[in-house]
Design brief:
Layout (H helix, E strand, L loop, with lengths): L13 H12 L18 E9 L2 H5 L6 E3 L11 E5 L2 E5 L5 E2 L1 E7 L6 E7 L15 E10 L4 E9 L4 E7 L10 E2 L5 E7 L5 E7 L13 E8 L4 E2 L5 E5 L12 E8 L2 E8 L7 E7 L7 E2 L6 E2 L12 E10 L5 E8 L12 E8 L6 E2 L9 E3 L20 E4 L11 E3 L7 E5 L2 E4 L12 E7 L4 E9 L8 E7 L5 E9 L2 E10 L2 E10 L5 E8 L2 E8 L5 E8 L5 H4 L6 E7 L7
């Protein structure tokens, strides 16, 4: 996962630059700062609603034999997939979100339920001092039938982990503590051969002194010892140098996955950087250690060649993984984006699904080399149950939470620390957020519960019961792309008045957009609406009509194009006792 600016080609990987900055700059570990909040005056959120309203889903209604892709809307990038029998499991990158690496289960590849997170405790995930786009990248999940074990291998650029692996016999019952792996590079993936041997493939730098151009990377392979969960020293070998054709100076060969079919070994990788030149390419060999020959038809998936102003655009397709489906047909999951009318990406990189034709020597994503469409035909015998019976919804949908359940919905996430450190549910009739002495601009755990923005056009609202006692106290909504780019719409105190304030943070600098004196004796509903790039923040007292604060503001700071990084925008229920916004 790697981009920060919308370009047709990448002179260097923004992921590598950001990871290096994370390692060099975030040297001091800052533990959870809870402060001394007045526990008798904790903000209570009693209802949350999110409604998607994208025109394209109205324009393209589903027929009975169809489903929508992306299958996971919003910031669910870098998908990896595996199966055990008829059970399919999928994971995504999570960066500094906590818990980390969401994991989903399906029996038909169309209908998915989130069953938890792979990294759900502090011993596995230590992201408390890094930026939102650092942390955990490109997880790869694989099932080994020889020892009936699932593995999730990833790069965690925080907490001193680097490359690491966790494992389990049952993804529903939790995962082991991490084992730190003794090799450099990023994007590791495990492959288990028919003879029981295991291998790791990953992206790395060329051998010292052999880098030919900016963005020149290689794919390495190691033998892997299943008994010690370590690569075997001295077994490493470069199996792809540069990419499909090094004479053309291809950039950022990465995200490798290895497969075996008809006795031959296939290596599939992303190439071109996660942006306008992103693609998926494939190689073949008679041995897992090569030599690997690129397919003559590469790339096998890309959107790079089409007009930038095309309607209903899907772009940046790549970083894929393959699996054999229920009927013996192959499918591929991959990331792509749906830009808004300003060609900006606020929803982040999402998980798409396409059928794959592997009737010839090489797999090809069906319709992956033409402009991607949002509708796909259901696999034979599969019923579309998305949005029903606990399956993830897609298209335009409504998500509501009154926080009356015994546990938080798995779609709610914290930032850099566990939700349980600041959240309580089922008390005072809603969600209690005990505010930390940190605010959203800090690279520390913050007391905010986040839901992913999943549409270009949406409405999100939450009801707040809170009466701050001083200017340093604030609770409300945040639209959060990162610690340096966000909006805060919250209730605070100025002298004797309760004030609603809308503040914009761009490049780390905060300005007050507007404020309003309100009567906080009754619950206040806070709302954000977006129509593409246009965002509006409003409030209503005790169920009354909404009043806008600040007019229409630009959502550009919530886009990857402006803010950089690797995430999509998040909508947060937020509280702090370190408020520095002064109306």
């Amino acid at each position: 996962m790697k981009t920060s600016k919308l370009k047709s080609a990448w002179p260097c990987s923004p992921k590598a630059v950001l990871l290096l900055a994370c390692l060099l700059s975030y040297s001091s570990v800052t533990l959870m700062a809870k402060g001394k909040a007045d526990k008798s005056n904790v903000p209570v959120f009693t209802h949350f609603v999110y409604q998607g309203d994208d025109e394209l889903y109205k324009k393209y209604p589903l027929l009975p034999d169809e489903f929508y892709t992306p299958i996971l809307q919003g910031c669910y990038p870098d998908p990896s997939i595996t199966c055990k029998g008829g059970d399919y499991y999928l994971v995504n990158s999570s960066f500094a979100m906590f818990p980390g690496v969401p994991i989903f289960h399906s029996t038909d590849l169309v209908n998915w339920k989130q069953i938890g997170h792979v990294l759900d405790r502090k011993s596995q995930l230590q992201v408390e001092d890094c930026g939102i786009s650092a942390g955990v990248y490109a997880p790869a999940i694989a099932y080994n039938p020889h020892n009936d074990t699932f593995y999730m291998i990833t790069t965690q650029f925080s907490g001193g982990f680097g490359n690491m692996v966790v494992k389990t016999h049952d993804p529903l019952k939790g995962w082991s503590d991490p084992v730190k792996l003794k090799f450099d590079g990023i994007d590791p993936s495990l492959f288990f051969d028919d003879d029981g041997k295991a291998y790791v493939v990953h992206n790395d730098a060329p051998d010292k002194g052999k880098e030919q151009y900016s963005g020149h990377r290689v794919i390495k392979i190691w033998e892997y010892d299943l008994a010690t969960d370590q690569v075997i020293v001295g077994t490493d070998k470069i199996i792809v140098d540069g990419g499909v054709d090094i004479r053309k100076k291809p950039i950022w060969i990465e995200g490798p996955h290895m497969y075996k079919k008809n006795g031959r070994y296939y290596l599939m990788c992303a190439e071109g950087g996660t942006g306008g030149w992103h693609s998926e390419v494939i190689f073949v060999s008679n041995s897992p250690k090569g030599p690997f020959t690129p397919a003559p038809s590469n790339p096998i998936l890309t959107q790079r060649h089409f007009p930038k102003d095309r309607a209903d655009k899907v772009d940046w397709a790549g970083h894929a993984d393959l699996v054999e489906g229920p009927n013996g047909k192959y499918y591929g999951v991959f990331l792509a984006v749906r830009p808004n009318e300003k060609d900006q990406v606020n929803t982040g990189r999402e998980t798409f699904l396409l059928p794959v034709d592997w009737s010839g020597e090489f797999p090809i994503f069906e319709n992956g080399l033409v402009p991607l469409t949002f509708k796909q035909k259901l696999p034979k015998g599969v019923e579309n149950r998305t949005g029903q019976d606990g399956y993830f919804p897609n298209g335009n949908f409504t998500f509501e939470d009154d926080f009356s359940s015994a546990a938080l919905d798995l779609r709610w996430i914290g930032m850099r620390g566990p939700r349980e450190d600041f959240v309580a549910i089922g008390k005072k009739g809603g969600l209690l957020i005990t505010p930390f002495a940190t605010h959203v601009k800090e690279m520390k755990p913050i007391s905010a519960l986040f839901y992913r923005q999943q549409h270009s056009s949406f409405r999100a609202a939450a009801t707040l019961d809170y009466r701050p006692k001083q200017a340093g106290e604030l609770a409300g909504l945040t639209c959060y792309q990162s610690e340096n780019f966000n909006y805060v719409f919250g209730l605070t105190k100025k002298d004797k008045d309760y004030m609603l304030v809308l503040a914009k943070t761009e490049k780390g600098q905060t300005t007050v957009v507007a404020s309003a004196v309100v009567d906080a004796k009754l619950p206040i509903s806070l709302q954000v609406e977006a129509k593409g790039n246009d965002y509006r923040f409003s409030y209503a007292i005790d169920g009354g009509a909404y009043t806008n604060v600040g007019g229409t503001v630009s959502g550009d700071i919530l886009s990857t194009n402006v803010a950089g990084g690797f995430t999509g925008s998040l909508i947060g229920l937020y509280a702090t006792i370190a408020n520095d916004i002064r109306p």
